[in-house]
Amino acid sequence: MLWLLVLALVLLIIIWAIAAYNKFVRYQENISNAMSQISAQVESRWDALSNLMTATQNYQTYESQTLTKIIEERSSVSNQASVKDITQDDQQFNSALGVISALAEQYPDLKASNVYLQTMQSVDKYENQVRQSRMIYNDTVTRFNRSIKTFPNSLIAGPFNFNEHPYFQNTPGKKEMPQWSK
Fold first, then answer.
1. What's the total number of domains in the chain?
2. pLDDT digit string (tens) for 89-137?
3. What is the CATH number of the domain that holds 143?
4. Are 148 and 154 in contact (CB under 8 A)?
5. What is the pLDDT of residue 180?
6. Residue 164 maps to a domain
7. Would 7 be classed as within a structural domain?
8. Euclidean distance between CA atoms 41 and 174, whole angstroms
9. Which of 12, 130, 154, 159 is packed most tightly, with the most Cβ within 10 A?
10. What is the pTM of this model?
11. 3-state secondary structure labels for all residues of the chain
């Protein structure tokens, strides 16, 4: 009888360990999915900016060349990207956006054009979607990190190399959504 009780206890521990491991795998897949969502939104945001670049090419050769260089040099973001990769991409994006904003200030007819206004609205939309995707990512990371830190889950997380994922932090100087002149 004692032998059956020990066997049942061992089976329960094995079942719990398998369930915990599978939960960690699900959480990591959710994190990868959340990063994929960010990647898709970042790509759409760059596409909108590329469209805006096309609209501005007629106004100033230097700014156009600068934008082309920034867009060509930007790194592609995927679901395998890190928080650092996304932050670097944001810096490149904001640099390109700064060039376009300065150009729009120099050329009021560009700033008033329908193409410019519609594209800036698209950039705003994608910027908001990137922000929302980051919040979803951070929520997913919170669930995962909390799960691997709590006992007895930590007994499974450590040996199977389930490690904490980093969070997106507020970018200095970017407390508010960008507002474009309309």
1. 1
2. 888 787 777 777 777 777 777 667 777 778 788 888 888 888 898 899 8
3. 1.20.1440.20
4. yes
5. 43
6. no
7. no
8. 18
9. 130
10. 0.70
11. CHHHHHHHHHHHHHHHHHHHHHHHHHHHHHHHHHHHHHHHHHHHHHHHHHHHHHHHCCCCHHHHHHHHHHHHHCCCCCCCCCHHHHHHHHHHHHHHHHHHHHHHHHCHHHHHCHHHHHHHHHHHHHHHHHHHHHHHHHHHHHHHHHHHHCCCCHHHHCCCCCCCCCCCCCCCCCCCCCCCCC
Q: How confident is the model at residue 5 (pLDDT cuts 50, 70, 90)?
A: very high
Residue 4 included in any domain: no
pLDDT band with cut points at 50, 70 and 90 for residue 62: low
For residue 127, the enclosing domain spans 17-157
Count other Cβ atoms within 10 Å, centred on residue 34: 21
* AA letter at 96: A
